[in-house]
Amino acid sequence: MIEVSGRGGQIQFDGQYVTITRKGFLARTTVGKGEKRLHISQIAAVQWKPAGAFVHGFIQFTLPGGNERRSAFGSQTKSAVQDENSVVFTKQQQPQFEKLRAALDQAIASQHSPQSPAAASSSLADELAKLAALRDQGILSDAEFHQQKARLLNQ
């Protein structure tokens, strides 16, 4: 489990869920106190702005169907403070947030990776069994069965 604390919010990532927790006065005056939990499959993108010498950075989670607005030049971090899917961090906190970002990138990529070879062969076996059942029921002729079988095996 990865846990990081920023300005006005903490993030926990257990490999499946991202939990954003806000406590205290700063949370009450910006987004509001409480907790938001997102499954990794809900996250469409992770926006990142590194902290500079004089400005804070932030990490922001984009959700499908979310209504995000583009910040005006020079006010990205100020807008992120008001966003419930963002946590702002300082230059000193940035290394921990970079580790979180790397773990999130890896988890998101694995969500979108192609099926394993075992799952693909299982699916091929299922398709062949369906074709055989259609042939046995008389819906497909032997010639049609062999044609479809060859198509599946030569993908």
Class computed from helices, strands and strand pairing: alpha+beta
Q: What is the spatial order of strands in the main beta sheet? A: 1-2-3-4
The count of DSSP E runs of length 2 or more, i.e. the number of strands, is 7
| Overall mean pLDDT | 80
What is the distance, rounded to the nearest whole angstrom, between the alpha carbons of the first and last residues?
41 Å
Question: What is the CATH architecture assignment of the largest domain?
Answer: Roll
CATH topology label of the largest domain: PH-domain like
Task: List the SSEs and their pairings.
Layout: E1 2-6, E2 9-13, E3 17-22, H1 24-29, E4 34-39, E5 45-49, E6 57-62, H2 76-81, E7 86-89, H3 94-111, H4 117-136, H5 142-153
Antiparallel strand pairs: 1-2, 2-3, 3-4, 5-6, 6-7
Helix pairs in contact: 4-5
Structure commentary:
- By secondary structure, the protein is of the alpha+beta class.
- It has two domains: 2-111, PH-domain like, CATH 2.30.29; 117-153.
- The chain has five helices and seven strands.
- It is elongated and about 75 Å long.
- The mean pLDDT is 80.
